[in-house]
């Protein structure tokens, strides 16, 4: 496919106009000012007034929780979990998870998300839905352990191990399997140590919740002789693996030193953290220290959508208010967090940039809409003015999956119907 006379957000986060972009197989093969000699097949001739850029990488989510959208509102985190979320999740089955995941993939593609880092269970049903959608995903079976037993005796570990064997690098590498320790407060030191060792032995990535709330952070210190969650997890070797740490709202300066030293990615989830009154991640200080910061939506049960452009805007402006500095997080830093930083956190080194040789995980926006005019600075408009409805195409590995309201791989009417049916069935059992 060749895009003609189109504006692009290039690998340096700079805007270039009247460009030609050629896609060959699953990669970007050509970017230039002239029509290339090579034949790229289908020609997209309506590039004028459109912007082509890297798709978004959502680095912390629980996709099947589309089933719980709007179900638990106006509650503190622990009440939200114990009164609404956990009772509902106890009734889940593979069918519900399949449809909930497929709905999340449809919503993701609609809003320009090409890849998601997920943590949940019934993961093989999730993987089936993800593979059908054509999207990318780093999927992890979340592990908890409230007993003194070995990790290796847990049913969740057996499921995690099987998932890795069956789906790691499946769908031509679009699906990767991460190891996922749920959190410090849902496990014990032995489990953490064993998870760390096992993850290292197979060379997998790690995905873990860290310091989401002040209560979680302070209770960890009380349990472990003053060690914060980051310090505790690091002492047991977990951060020796390539790790994405979700939230990190209450981390301390020493934690940031460890995160930097270990090359941990912080996945900030601004809307969920604000909605649950958990706090605001100190993104400005993390960026100042050169830490890789990406963006996650968390689940739509605490968000309540996967509108990633909305997430990006809140990512930028919440830090400005919290730290009383209007220069705290720039639009270019936000765009980097939404794209390249997220791809790197997932171990997708050839993704997250519109550049020759990179995977063609691209989105197109209509920039001729009223909310884009006038354009003094495109990066500013993308972060502060754009909305999810401006996205008119989403492509993964060179294949168009969503365009102008049409899904190429998902029967959206059936998916909505089956998700509603599955949610209603669970509610009838509560």
Automatic annotation (TrEMBL):
Residues of the Amidohydrolase-related domain: 52-400
Coiled-coil region(s): none
Keywords, alphabetical: Hydrolase
Pfam family name, one: Amidohydro_1
InterPro entries: Amidohydro-rel (IPR006680), Metal-dep_hydrolase_composite (IPR011059), Metal_Hydrolase (IPR032466), MTA/SAH_deaminase (IPR050287)
Molecular function terms from GO: hydrolase activity, acting on carbon-nitrogen (but not peptide) bonds
The keyword DNA damage belongs to this UniProt entry's keyword annotation: no
Sequence intervals crossing the membrane: none
Protein known as: Amidohydrolase
Species of origin: Aminipila butyrica
């Amino acid at each position: 496919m060749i895009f003609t006379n189109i504006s692009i957000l290039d690998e340096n986060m700079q805007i270039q106009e009247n460009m030609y972009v050629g896609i060959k197989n699953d990669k970007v093969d050509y970017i230039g000012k002239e029509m290339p000699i090579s034949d790229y097949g289908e020609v997209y001739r309506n590039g004028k007034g459109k912007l082509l850029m890297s798709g978004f990488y959502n680095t912390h989510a629980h996709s099947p929780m589309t089933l719980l959208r709007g179900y638990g509102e106006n509650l503190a985190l622990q009440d939200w979990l114990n009164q609404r979320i956990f009772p509902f999740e106890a009734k889940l089955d593979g069918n519900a998870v399949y449809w909930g995941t497929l709905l999340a993939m449809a919503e993701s593609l609609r809003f320009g998300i090409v890849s998601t880092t997920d943590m949940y269970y019934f993961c093989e049903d999730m993987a089936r839905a993800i593979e059908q959608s054509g999207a990318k995903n780093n999927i992890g079976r979340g592990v908890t352990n409230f007993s003194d037993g070995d990790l290796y005796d847990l049913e969740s570990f057996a499921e995690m191990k099987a998932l890795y064997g069956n789906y790691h690098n499946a769908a031509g590498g679009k699906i990767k399997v991460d190891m996922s320790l749920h959190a410090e407060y849902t496990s014990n030191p032995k489990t953490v140590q064993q998870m760390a060792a096992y993850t290292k032995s197979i060379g997998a990535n790690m995905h873990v919740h860290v310091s989401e709330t002040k209560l979680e952070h302070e209770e960890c210190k009380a349990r472990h002789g003053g060690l914060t969650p980051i310090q505790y997890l690091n002492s047991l070797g977990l951060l020796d693996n390539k790790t994405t740490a979700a939230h990190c709202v209450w981390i301390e300066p020493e934690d940031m030193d460890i995160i930097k030293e270990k090359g941990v990615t912080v996945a900030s989830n601004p809307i969920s953290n604000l909605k649950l009154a958990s706090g605001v991640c100190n993104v400005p200080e993390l960026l100042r220290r050169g830490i890789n910061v990406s963006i996650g939506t968390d689940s739509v049960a605490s968000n309540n959508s996967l509108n990633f452009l909305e997430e990006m805007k809140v990512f930028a402006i919440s830090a400005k208010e919290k730290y009383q500095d209007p220069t705290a997080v720039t639009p270019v830093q936000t765009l980097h967090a939404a794209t390249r930083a997220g791809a790197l956190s997932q171990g997708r080194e050839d993704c997250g940039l519109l550049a020759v040789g990179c995977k063609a995980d691209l989105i197109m926006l209509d920039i001729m809409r009223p909310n884009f005019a006038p354009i003094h600075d495109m990066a500013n408009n993308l972060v502060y003015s754009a909305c999810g409805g401006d996205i008119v195409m989403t492509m993964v590995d060179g294949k168009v999956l969503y365009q102008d309201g049409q899904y190429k791989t998902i029967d959206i009417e059936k998916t909505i119907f089956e998700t509603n049916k599955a949610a209603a069935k669970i509610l009838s059992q509560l």
